[in-house]
Design goal:
Number of strands: 11
Strand order of the largest sheet: 2-1-3-4-5-6-7-10-11
Low-confidence stretches: none
Distance between the termini: 14 Å
Number of helices: 12
Strand content: 15-25%
CATH topology: TIM Barrel
CATH class: Alpha Beta
Helix content: 25-40%
Radius of gyration: 17 Å
Structural class: alpha/beta
Length: 273
């Protein structure tokens, strides 16, 4: 088995303070160290600052982080309410370690299915072949649904779309987050070759039985490894790795989830060691 086949790539991380939560905060150095400690080779990060506060300042933080830390690679974030953020799309392809764009309708306050949302995706696809979408069906938001994402992925087949958070997390007042199995079923039914699902979620969903059901629904060819670090500490990252490793799957299928599925989507990843 080659080193590339053993590789673990986390497609969904952050630097900064997520929701200003003290336990969901880590600078670039800390994210780099947590990733290494958990046995993950590379982590794709966006900035919490970009998602929640100042989009441009956060993108600048990511550019600085990926230049300093070998195991960090970056997403640029665009926000239609920060028109100046679109200039950061020019870094994709020009800056070697900027791998794509992250789109976050829920936090930025627009519906992905609206004219504004569709125009944003059109502009982004002109610059990158990889887009990570915050996908949600949370009460009061739900601005980025898996069905809409599938429609867009079908239209822009030249790009790879990643649906974060296992095709969206449900939320209710009694038990805040739980798996959106109907969203996963919808993704499976669409069966689009350029629509991937990342495993990022709160730690409870990493239980082996839950992961087993997820793989049964969408298959190992459509899953990519993501953690939402620093929301997931290095301990929780390792817990998720244990859940995947415990699956009764051929090793080759586990390698697809950990790195092969995302590596085949991006030419730059062929140089990963």
């Amino acid at each position: 088995m080659s080193e590339g086949e053993k590789m673990k790539i986390d497609v969904h991380g952050h630097i900064g303070s997520v929701n200003l939560h003290p336990n969901w905060t880590a600078n670039a150095k800390q994210v780099s160290e947590m990733t290494q400690k958990a046995g993950v080779d590379h982590c794709f990060v966006s900035s919490a600052m970009s998602i929640m506060y100042d989009t441009c300042q956060g993108n600048d933080e990511v550019l600085e982080a990926v230049r300093e830390f070998d195991n960090l690679w970056g997403y640029m974030v665009v926000n239609p309410f920060f028109p100046e953020s679109f200039r950061y799309l020019d870094f994709i392809g020009k800056e070697r370690k900027i791998v794509g764009c992250k789109i976050h309708p829920d936090y930025h306050g627009y519906d992905l299915s609206s004219p504004m949302g569709k125009d944003l995706v059109r502009r982004v696809v002109d610059h990158t072949s990889l887009i990570l979408f915050h996908t949600s069906c949370m009460a009061g938001t739900g601005f980025s649904r898996i069905g809409t994402l599938g429609e867009l992925a079908s239209k822009y087949s030249q790009a790879t779309f990643i649906s974060a958070h296992l095709a969206g997390l449900y939320q209710n007042p009694l038990y805040p987050y739980y798996i959106n199995y109907s969203g996963l079923e919808e993704a499976a039914q669409m069966n689009l070759p350029n629509l991937l699902i990342d495993t990022s979620s709160f730690w409870i969903y990493a239980y082996p039985g839950v992961m087993k059901r997820i793989v049964e629904l969408v298959g190992p060819d459509k899953l990519v490894f993501g953690t939402d670090i620093p929301i997931q500490s290095d301990m929780q990252i390792r817990f998720k790795i244990i859940a995947i490793d415990s699956l009764e799957l051929p090793q080759s299928d586990k390698e697809k989830i950990y790195s092969k599925n995302i590596r085949k989507s991006l030419q730059i990843l062929k140089e990963f060691k």
